[in-house]
Automatic annotation (TrEMBL), chain A:
Keywords: Metal-binding, Molybdenum, Oxidoreductase, Signal. This is Protein-methionine-sulfoxide reductase catalytic subunit MsrP. The lineage of its organism: Bacteria, Pseudomonadati, Pseudomonadota, Alphaproteobacteria, Rhodobacterales. Belongs to the MsrP family. GO terms for biological process: protein repair. Residues 1-41 form the signal peptide. It comes from Rhodobacter xanthinilyticus.
UniProtKB/TrEMBL annotation, chain B:
This is Protein-methionine-sulfoxide reductase heme-binding subunit MsrQ. One of its GO terms (molecular function) is FMN binding. The gene is msrQ. Heterodimer of a catalytic subunit (MsrP) and a heme-binding subunit (MsrQ). Its main location: membrane. Binds 1 heme b (iron(II)-protoporphyrin IX) group per subunit. Binds 1 FMN per subunit. One of its GO terms (cellular component) is plasma membrane. InterPro entries: Fe3_Rdtase_TM_dom, MsrQ-like. GO terms for biological process: protein repair. It is found in: Cell membrane; Membrane.
C-alpha cells in the first residue's frame, strides 16, 4: 500500500507570494541593469474546463527540474544554460500535406486562437510527475488554419537546431534536431495543446519557449519543446526516442501503468515536491485522461503500440 | 618525493580517513536540511549516495596499482576506504527502497527481477556484505589465505556497481564513460602481463 501524503497548504508557496518575490528579484535585477525596469506583462488566459483541480507544482519546481537535453543531461542544466537561447525572432515552418504551407511568424501563430489556462497533470517516462498550469491553445486550431489534405495521417514536429546556443547539441548521444510526432487524430484532440505560457507568464526558455507541445495523456517526451517545424505526413514520422531505443520508447508513449518501461515499472509515480517521505502514488491509465482519449485507441493493442 | 609523501601519510591516523569519509554524508544531510538539495530531493540523495559509493569503491581498487606503479603507499587506509564504500552502498540502497520506492516492497521486488541494472546493483551489494563482515583483523587471521580469495569478490562487485551506474542512464554521459574507463584501467593493470609494470 502506498502511504501517499498530499502536501498540505502550508507546504505550498501562495502564487501571489512567489509572484511578488519574482517581481522583487526581477525589479532588483532591472534596477541594477537599467536603473528602473518596466513591469513584465503577464499573459491573460481564460480558465479551461479541461483543467484538473489538482494543486499545481510551484513555478520553481516546474522551471528548475527539466529534461531538455539540448541544454545538457542534468535536470538543472536547462535552467542554467537556456538563457542564451534567442527566442525572438521566431517562426514556425508548416508544410507537408497542407493546403496553406508556409513560414508563420510566432506572433501570427499565437493569434490562431484565444489563450486558455490548462492545468494539466504531467507524467514523465522516468516515473515522476508534476501538475503544471500551461497557457496555450489547441493544436487543432492551428492545423485547421493550414488546411490538412485528405492524405495527411500524421503530424511531425521538430525542435530548433542551434548548437551555438544549445550546448547539449554540441555533445553527442542524440541525433539532433529532436523530432516527435502524433497521429493526426491525436493532434486534433482538444486536449493537445500548443503552449506559449506558464503560470500567467511567457513560457520560460527551459520549458520550451517560445512554443511547445503539451500532450497530457502521453509521457513527457512526446511534448516537444521550442518548435520550429510542423509537417503533415502520410507515414508515421521518425521520433527521436524511438529511433534511439525502440524497445524502450514507442511512438505512442501513452501513459500506461500496465506497460512497464523495460528498465522500470510504470505502475506508480513520485510527485515532485511531495517531500522526502511522501512515497509513490499509483499511475492512472492515460495519466487520468482516459475518459477523454481512450476512444482514440479502440482496437489498438497498447502493449504492442506502447 | 614519493618517499616524503609516504612519510607524511604514515603520520595520518586511520580514523582521520573514516572521519573524512563521513564528510560527503554530512554534506548531503546539510543540503537536505537547508533545502539546497534541489527540486527532487529523493533522486538527488539517492544519486549522490551512489556516486560517493563509487568514489570509494574505485578508490579502493586504485590502492594496489598506485603502490606498485607509483610507489604511493595507501595500503593502511584500504580497509577504511572499503568500509566507507560499504556504508554508502547501504545508504544508497536504503534511500532507494525507502524514499524512492516508498517501501512498496512488492513493486521493488518485481522491479529487481525485471531490471538488470537494479539486479546488478543489488548483487554488488550482496557481494560486499561478506567483505565488510570480514574486514576486521581477527577475520584476516582466522581465514588466512582464504581471506584473500574471498576478497577477490571486490572485482565483480565494483564492476557490477559501475555497470549498474551506466545502465540506469538513458544515454551514457561523458562522466559515465570516464568511470567505465577508470574501472577498465584498474582491472587491466591487474592482468598478468601488466602486473609487473612499475614507474618508480
Amino acid at each position: 500500500m502506498s502511504k501517499t501524503k498530499s502536501p498540505s497548504w502550508a507546504d505550498v508557496t501562495p502564487r501571489a507570494d512567489f509572484l511578488r518575490r519574482r517581481s522583487l528579484i526581477a525589479g532588483a535585477g532591472a534596477a541594477l541593469a537599467f536603473g528602473a525596469g518596466p513591469a513584465r506583462a503577464g499573459l491573460s488566459a481564460a480558465p479551461s474546463a479541461y483543467s484538473t483541480d489538482a494543486k499545481p507544482n510551484t513555478l520553481e519546481e516546474i522551471t528548475s527540474y527539466n529534461n531538455f537535453y539540448e541544454f545538457g543531461w542534468d535536470k538543472g542544466d536547462p535552467a542554467k544554460y537556456a538563457g542564451a537561447l534567442t527566442t525572438d525572432p521566431w517562426s514556425v515552418e508548416i508544410g507537408g500535406l497542407v493546403g496553406r504551407p508556409g513560414r508563420y511568424d510566432l506572433a501570427d501563430v499565437l493569434k490562431t486562437a484565444p489563450l486558455e489556462e490548462r492545468i494539466y497533470r504531467f507524467r514523465c517516462v522516468e516515473a515522476w510527475s508534476m501538475v503544471i498550469p500551461w497557457i496555450g491553445f489547441p493544436l487543432a486550431a492551428l492545423l485547421a488554419r493550414v488546411e490538412p489534405q485528405p492524405g495527411a495521417k500524421y503530424v511531425a514536429l521538430e525542435t530548433l537546431l542551434r548548437p551555438e546556443e544549445m550546448p547539449g547539441q554540441r555533445a553527442g548521444g542524440i541525433d539532433w534536431p529532436y523530432v516527435e510526432g502524433l497521429r493526426l487524430d491525436e493532434a486534433m484532440h482538444p486536449l493537445t495543446l500548443l503552449a506559449s505560457g506558464l503560470y500567467g507568464e511567457e513560457l520560460p526558455k527551459q520549458n520550451g519557449a517560445p512554443l511547445r507541445l503539451v500532450v497530457p495523456w502521453k509521457y513527457g517526451f512526446k511534448s516537444i519543446k521550442s518548435i520550429v517545424k510542423i509537417t503533415l505526413t502520410a507515414e508515421e514520422p521518425r521520433t527521436t526516442w524511438k529511433a534511439l531505443q525502440p524497445r524502450e520508447y514507442g511512438f505512442y508513449a501513452n501513459v500506461n501503468p500496465e506497460v512497464d518501461h523495460p528498465r522500470w515499472s510504470q505502475a506508480s509515480e513520485r510527485r515532485i515536491g511531495a517531500g522526502l517521505l511522501a512515497g509513490r502514488e499509483p499511475t492512472l491509465m492515460f495519466n487520468g485522461y482516459a475518459d477523454e482519449v481512450a476512444g482514440l485507441y479502440a482496437g489498438l493493442d497498447l502493449r504492442k503500440n506502447y | 618525493m614519493i618517499g616524503a609523501v609516504n612519510g607524511a601519510l604514515r603520520r595520518v591516523p586511520v580514523w582521520a580517513v573514516y572521519l573524512a569519509g563521513l564528510l560527503p554524508l554530512c554534506w548531503i544531510i546539510w543540503l537536505t536540511l537547508a533545502g539546497g538539495i534541489g527540486v527532487d530531493p529523493v533522486k538527488a540523495i539517492e544519486h549522490r549516495l551512489g556516486k560517493v559509493a563509487l568514489w570509494f569503491l574505485i578508490g579502493g581498487l586504485a590502492v594496489t596499482p598506485l603502490r606498485r606503479i607509483a610507489g604511493l603507499n595507501l595500503i593502511r587506509f584500504r580497509r577504511a576506504l572499503g568500509l566507507t564504500a560499504f556504508l554508502y552502498v547501504c545508504l544508497h540502497a536504503l534511500a532507494w527502497i525507502w524514499f524512492d520506492m516508498g517501501l512498496l516492497w512488492a513493486q521493488a521486488a518485481a522491479d529487481l527481477v525485471k531490471r538488470p541494472y537494479l539486479l546488478f546493483g543489488m548483487v554488488a551489494l550482496a557481494l560486499i556484505v561478506p567483505l565488510a563482515l570480514t574486514s576486521n583483523t581477527a577475520s584476516v587471521r582466522r581465514l588466512g589465505p582464504a581471506w584473500r580469495r574471498l576478497h577477490w569478490l571486490t572485482y565483480p562487485a565494483v564492476a557490477l556497481g559501475v555497470v549498474h551506474y551506466l545502465w540506469q542512464m538513458k544515454v551514457i554521459s561523458t562522466e559515465g564513460w570516464l568511470w567505465a574507463a577508470a574501472l577498465a584501467g584498474l582491472l587491466v593493470l591487474r592482468l598478468p602481463g601488466l602486473a609487473r609494470l612499475r614507474l618508480v
